C-alpha cells in the first residue's frame, strides 16, 4: 500500500508539467522569420510608406491648368460658340519659380524616408514583443518543470517520513506536512499553466496563427551575445542604424525643406495663359497672357514663422531621441549585466549549495538527527534557487527586448 501511494505521488508530480521530451520544440528564429510577413501592423506601415512614395511625384508635378470659356455678344440666348459674337477659350498654367517644386519634392522625399524608418521601428517593436513573449513562455514552462523536480524531492522526503513513521520513529505530522506541500505545488502549477496560456496566445497573435493554436514546448532562448557590443555603440556615439533616430533625422530634413519653401513663397509665381478667339466657325485671333502672383496679404510670412517653429521642434526632437537612445542603452545594459551576474551566482554557488544541503538534511532526518521541517525547507530552497535562475534568464531577455524596442538595433 505504501509503495502504491508513493508511485501515485510520483505520477502526479510528472503530471505537473505538460509536454514530452520527444516533442519538437518551438524555434524562436522560425517565429522571427515569419513576423514581417504575417503581422498586419507591419504591413500597414509598409503600405503607408508606399503611399508616401507616390507623394514625391505629386509634390514635383505642376499645378493643374485651368480652362476658361467666355461667350461674348449673346443676342438670342443661343449659347453655341458659333452662334454668339465671340468665344474665347483660355488655358492658364501657373508655374512655380525659384526652385519651389524641387523643395516640395525634397520635403516629400524626407517624409517618405521617415515612413520607411517608421516601418523599421514597427518591426523592431514587434521583434521585441516576440522576444518578450517567447521568454515568458520559456520561463513559465521552465517553472512547470521545476515544480515536477520539487514534487520529486518532496516525494523522496515523504518516502523517508513514511518509513520512519512505520517504524514508530516519526510522527504522522511529517506525512501531513509533505502532502500539504505537494498540494501547494499543484495550486502553483495551475497559475503557471495560466502564464503559459497567456504567452502562447501572445505568440500566436504575433505569428498570425489562431489564438488557441497549440504550441510545442519552447526551444532555447534567443542568443544575447551581441547585446553588449550593440549597447556600447549607442553609448559611445558611434555610427549605428536606428529607426528611431532615422525618423527624427528625416523629420528634421522635411521641416528644413518646408521652411525654405515657405521662405521662397515670398517670391511670385508665373502664370501663362493662351486664348484662341472664335468668331463664327473660325479662330480669328490668338491672345497671350503672362501674369504673376502677388504675395501681399501676409499669409506667406505667417507660414514661414510656423515652419521655422516646426524646424526648431524637429531639431530638439532629434536631440531628445538621441538622449533617449543612450539612456535606454545604459539602463538596459545595467539590467542585463545584473541579471547575467545573478544567473551565474545561482548556477555556480547557490544551487549546488542548496542541493548539497538537501541531501545532507535528508540523510540526517533518516538518522533522526534533524526534524522533517528542515528537510522540506531544504527542498524548497532548491526550488527558490532555480526560480531565481529562471527569473535571471528572463530578465536578460526583457532587457534586450527593451533595448531593441527603443533603439531598433537587433543584437
Please tag this protein with its features.
alpha+beta, Outer membrane efflux proteins (OEP), disordered N terminus, 4-stranded antiparallel sheet, 9 helices, 411 residues, single chain, elongated
Descriptive report:
By secondary structure, the protein is an alpha+beta fold. The chain has one domain (2-16, 26-407): Outer membrane efflux proteins (OEP), CATH 1.20.1600.10. The chain has helices at residues 2-14, 28-38, 40-60, 100-166, 172-207, 227-236, 243-264, 299-366, 372-407; strands at residues 66-72, 86-95, 270-279, 282-292. It has a four-stranded antiparallel beta sheet with strand order 1-2-3-4, with no helix packed on it. β3 (270-279) and β4 form a beta hairpin. Mean pLDDT is 82; it is low at 1-21.
Give the gist of this structure:
With 411 residues, the chain is of the alpha+beta class.
Amino acid at each position: 500500500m505504501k509503495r502504491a501511494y508513493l508511485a501515485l505521488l510520483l505520477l502526479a508530480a510528472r503530471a505537473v508539467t505538460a509536454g514530452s521530451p520527444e516533442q519538437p520544440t518551438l524555434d524562436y528564429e522560425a517565429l522571427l522569420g515569419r513576423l514581417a510577413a504575417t503581422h498586419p501592423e507591419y504591413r500597414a506601415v509598409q503600405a503607408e510608406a508606399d503611399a508616401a512614395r507616390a507623394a514625391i511625384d505629386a509634390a514635383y508635378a505642376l499645378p493643374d491648368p485651368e480652362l476658361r470659356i467666355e461667350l461674348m455678344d449673346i443676342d438670342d440666348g443661343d449659347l453655341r460658340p458659333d452662334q454668339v459674337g465671340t468665344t474665347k477659350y483660355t488655358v492658364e498654367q501657373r508655374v512655380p519659380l525659384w526652385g519651389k517644386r524641387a523643395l516640395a519634392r525634397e520635403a516629400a522625399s524626407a517624409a517618405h524616408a521617415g515612413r520607411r524608418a517608421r516601418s523599421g521601428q514597427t518591426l523592431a517593436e514587434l521583434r521585441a514583443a516576440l522576444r518578450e513573449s517567447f521568454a515568458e513562455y520559456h520561463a513559465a514552462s521552465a517553472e512547470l518543470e521545476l515544480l515536477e523536480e520539487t514534487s520529486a524531492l518532496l516525494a523522496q522526503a515523504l518516502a523517508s517520513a513514511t518509513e520512519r513513521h512505520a517504524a514508530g520513529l516519526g510522527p504522522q505530522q511529517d506525512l501531513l506536512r509533505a502532502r500539504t506541500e505537494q498540494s501547494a505545488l499543484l495550486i502553483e502549477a495551475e497559475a503557471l499553466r495560466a502564464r503559459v496560456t497567456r504567452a502562447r496566445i501572445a505568440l500566436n497573435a504575433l505569428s498570425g496563427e489562431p489564438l488557441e493554436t497549440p504550441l510545442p514546448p519552447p526551444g532555447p532562448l534567443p542568443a544575447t551575445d551581441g547585446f553588449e557590443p550593440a549597447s556600447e555603440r549607442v553609448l559611445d556615439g558611434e555610427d549605428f542604424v536606428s529607426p528611431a533616430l532615422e525618423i527624427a533625422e528625416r523629420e528634421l530634413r522635411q521641416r528644413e525643406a518646408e521652411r525654405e519653401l515657405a521662405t521662397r513663397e515670398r517670391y511670385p509665381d508665373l502664370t501663362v495663359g493662351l486664348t484662341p478667339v472664335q468668331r463664327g466657325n473660325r479662330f480669328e485671333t490668338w491672345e497671350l497672357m503672362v501674369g504673376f502672383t502677388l504675395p501681399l496679404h501676409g499669409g506667406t510670412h505667417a507660414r514661414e514663422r510656423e515652419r521655422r517653429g516646426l524646424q526648431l521642434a524637429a531639431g530638439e526632437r532629434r536631440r531628445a531621441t538621441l538622449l533617449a537612445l543612450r539612456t535606454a542603452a545604459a539602463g538596459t545594459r545595467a539590467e542585463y549585466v545584473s541579471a547575467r551576474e545573478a544567473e551565474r551566482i545561482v548556477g555556480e554557488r547557490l544551487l549546488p549549495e542548496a542541493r548539497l544541503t538537501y541531501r545532507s538534511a535528508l540523510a540526517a532526518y533518516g538518522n533522526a538527527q534533524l526534524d522533517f521541517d528542515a528537510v522540506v525547507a531544504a527542498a524548497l530552497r532548491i526550488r527558490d534557487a532555480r526560480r531565481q535562475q529562471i527569473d535571471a534568464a528572463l530578465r536578460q531577455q526583457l532587457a534586450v527586448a527593451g533595448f531593441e524596442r527603443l533603439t531598433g538595433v537587433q543584437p
